[in-house]
Amino acid sequence: MSSIRLLPTILVNRIAAGEVIERPASVIKELVENAIDAGATSVEILLEQAGKNRIVVQDNGRGMNKQELELCVQRHATSKLPSDDLLDIRFLGFRGEALPSIGSVSRLSVTSRARGSDEAWQLRVEGGDVGNAEPAALSGGTRIEVRDLFYATPARLKFLKSDRTEIGQAADTIERLAMANPSVSFLLKSDDKTLLQVSGSQLDLIDARLARLRELMGKEFADNALALMQQRENMVLTGFAALPTYNRGTSAEQYLFVNGRPVKDRLLIGAVRGAYHDVLAHDRHPVVALFLDVPSHEVDVNVHPAKAEVRFRDTNMIRGLMIGAIKHALSEAGFRASTSVGAQALSHFSAHPHLPTPPQYQGGYSYAGGLSEPAQSRYQAFGQTAALMPQHMLPPMARQSHQPMEFAHVGAPQNIQDYTLYPLGAARCQLHQTYIVAETADGLVVVDQHAAHERLVLEKMKLGMAESGVARQKLLIPEVVDIGEKLAERLLARQDELLAFGLAIESFGAGSIAVRETPAMLGDVNITAMIRALTDDLSECGEALSLKERIEELCSTMACHGSVRAGRSLNVLEMNALLRQMEQTPLSGQCNHGRPTYIELKRKDIEKLFGRRG
Asked: What pTM was computed for the model?
């Protein structure tokens, strides 16, 4: 065995490059972050052969003089830690590893001109060998060129994906940085093809962010995004969260930023999941762009080589801030559903110039507000069924079919025709004993009566639990579960939170807890399995999601069985009562499973279907 020795500087830099420089997108991230840190308002990125052959990043930032240029390619040389305090990081970069790491595995050229200087300088690094600074021509800022990436470590090239994949990674990197910096213009080209181009905005920060998100995530997201702004102590969360009915099959469109730094943090993703978990199906994911600003000493960004993850001093406060802000925004949205729902419905319409001869009319609604004789008999049958249901399960249904529920809204119009002035309009008819068709001031609304009432009943049940708490059942003999000291401490730290959901626990010696009470509505529950699921939740997400989800899932099932079913006839007063309650109930734009409760079609869109508009 050889004696201990210091590794050569070039080898040290190549080892560092293995941690920091994973692919062309990693190079782009480091260089563009340096440009932003240098105060650039314009950044241009050029790629050749997905960045493997050539990467050029040019900015209009402060630039560097000759002495700074010579230092910038030295390992751990940085201008971003003036106080040498790793807990007071105010820049995207700070380690001083990027340029020497890149230069150790490629042919690197750095050209820069300091702001106010009359001359520019260029420095070359090839496979770790640093040349001398030479005079160069550059109008201002810094231009960095990286050729033959990984030529000095050819084994790394074998781990790269296809050009298409690598270009996609690079574009995603620039998009995230562009979202975080709406005042900066970005241009990304690949082999002379423009992939991304956005101009810097001079609007105030919130408006500028929304404008930038509209450019990068699309108009549809911007139209369905709910603005967030919430502060807790010295932490501020802003951004935009999409309506639940605007969702995706993966979490790819969840963008999270901490102090302007794009991150992919498990804790933050878990918080987003927790905020949406009772309004989205388990296989769907919300779309969000969230910006968290916290004092630098409250977050550690030095926990990942690529700075993609962060660690918070007070994780519970951060989670609470995020979940509270998103849930408040969703609640404030009320009955609003995403605009994409109506657009999808319109896409399925088609014109039929030759219609079949209709069958003889069999009855139904003869006009709005009145029932034909067959419909009256069906309605009476429905009334007999409704009379047997528990009264608390009926709002806003009629308590008796011959006594429709009154619309108790202050200032409600007396003429049903005037209901068209309300957002969900005036009920005109019921189709297939399932869908309510309402006329609005500028179009029509089609409501799924079961889905809508299911949400109304669930929200009423949740309100009742919030006011009186979850009912608990005492165990005759407390059940002791051994989960180890670390997990037991973590669970016991959440005693009050768990008690609010009907679970009473206490310490029972080292590494064990005693369960004395469980949520009554869960009935005979496997306590050991439940406790272990809770500890898994706390380890992964920092929150006892499994208990919440089980309780809310049961509430959802009860609400489903206690709501107006499809196939039941409603009269026009009951239909209007349902619409008015939807307008006043949070989250009523989607059912308990995340599906839309109604579809809105604007008059102009309907006219297009009939060729009245171009």
From this structure: 0.73
